[in-house]
Amino acid sequence: MIHQSDEGPGPATPGDAIKIRARGINVFYGAKQALFDVSLDVPEKSVTALIGPSGCGKSTFLRCINRMNDTIAGTRVEGRVELDGEDVNDRSIDPVVLRARVGMVFQKPNPFPKTIYENVAYGPRIHGIATTKPELDAIVEKSLKRAGLWSEVADRLQQPGTGLSGGQQQRLVIARAIAVSPEVILMDEPCSALDPIATARIEELIDELRNQYCIVIVTHSMAQAARVSQKTAFFHMGKLVEAGATGDIFTNPRDGRTQDYITGRFG
Amino acid sequence: MTETSLSAAQTLRKTVEARLKVRHAQETRFRAYGLVAIFIALSFLAVLLGRIVTQGYSTFVEYSLTVPVYIDPARVDPADISGANFDLMIADQVLARLGIKDDDFGTQSSKVMDILSNDLGFQLLEKVKASPALIGKTVTVTGPVRADGALYYKGEIKRSTPEDERKLDNAQLGWLDRMKATGMVSSGFNSGFLTRSDSTEPEQAGVWGAIVGSTMMLLVTALLAVPIGVLAATYLEEFAARNRWTDIIEVNINNLAAVPSIVYGLLGLAVFINWLHVPRSSPLLGGLVLALMALPTVIIATRSALKAVPPSIREAALGVGASKTQTVFHHVLPLAMPGVMTGAILSMAHALGETAPLLMIGMVSFVPGVPEGFTGAATVLPVQVFIWENASERAFHERTAGAIMVLLVFMIVMNLAAILLRRRFERRW
Questions:
Q1: Of B126, B153, B188, which marks where a domain is finished?
Q2: Which residues of chain A have pLDDT under 70?
Q3: ipTM
Q4: Fewest CB within a 10 Å sphere: which of A59, A110, B33, B378?
């Protein structure tokens, strides 16, 4: 069942394959409806930014992609989210497998209260990706390197992950997500708890990672959306107002609400 | 214009300052209330502990008599060693050493026997039984003075009390004085109180049986209540759906935690004894009843510890693809462990001091030994206190305080263990 919203899915960046295809998403938290008929295409190997004022449903949409909404009691999701053409809400899809394919980085850095090594090794270990110590060591090193954290923590892998600075913790969390070789990485306001320098570091990292992963990022900062994303979707009051190439949205928004938001008239 | 605004600012400041005095006074008052409350609480504690210690410390002082006894072949028949009156032989020996001649009716020696523990006679009997070659030789025995004699040494029985109102007459007090003066009686640490079990003779009664009984019973309680309680709480908190049934269960658990403990005793009597035929007054039975009693507390403590684990940890684990069970057992429960441990140990400490339900299930019996396994008859520390407190002999009351001291030490050790365990688990972040 495919619903087409008024706005419709925004045009993908030319030449990019579609990784995630969402159609007619309605989300209810109990009696309250949080998302109204959202349809959006997310291109492969690029960064898609979801922007909009607080409570507009952008995080809710993000959590539909890896079914994190399942974990909240009383939540109901309608519609279809396809990952490579497969419906993620299908009965045959195990959320555990889905979440290994679709990694997630949260607003507040949330490393496990364990060692840095354990934080990264946990995912591969529970999924059985690596069983021997050398394999695991290799994955930990590779993931930390890719997250740009290796040089800072190589000599203290056995120290607690919670002892790192906020920016380092967030990169550790990204390394943890990368360690299970996901296809998609969802980031829910990953820089909102960080200082500008740590933010810049994460943004650089996102830019590097986009060569390999499909990244969806929720952000409050329009400047950040403009800097890191290739595609932007603007949410307002639970509806997807407009989606398109980032350049187009910021220079030439079609909807008045988008224009008002990006020029700072509300938000 | 400027003047008026200036004066307005000044009035404002004055109002604030006037109010400030009231606020400071309020703060000082509340601090004083707090200090007074703490002082009252501490003085109650000091009075309680002080009374127990001043009453009980003398339990740990023992007066023992050492006397060489000649095993007269004329009085001991090698064929019937148990038939010999060793008590009388010891009493005669003591009389001889005090230089007193007994009359034909043996009144003096029976008065001596009243101030010596029959433990001496038993010791002699055991020795001679073990090697009959001792007959005709001199054997030295050491044993406690009878409880009343010890009470006299400790000043509990006074000479100033009229003779017919005390248990020992003037002659006996005189002997006790001389025995002490001549070095026949010496005082020392009463290790017997910690190594012996209950006895009908106060000077021979100890708490070892009760300590072992308490330990065994707590073991049963802990092995049942902690795993069942933690798993039940984990299921209710992490897995169960929130609906009317779980609400009903929650309300019931909270109510059960407030049920008077004696009701659990009645339940134990009806279910475990009358229906399941668990041997009465056994550590197993006591442990079962106390496990029922501790269960709601363990569940409530575990649930609140689980609630305190930040949801971000659950999201993190679920986000990397951990299953619900993995999330709970790899991350949430280990983080909640310090809280779980504290709850568990506090409820165990509570169970350790529980008396009422145990009275209902027949643990209030006289058990003169260490329990023979989990189904053997046993007594436990708080019940031992109860039994001794009800005893008619005055010397038992001193033991009551001594047993309370042992119980308190037991509890302090348990609480220390709780703190250490907590630290250990916390260090693992």
A1: B188
A2: 1-16, 266-267
A3: 0.85
A4: B33
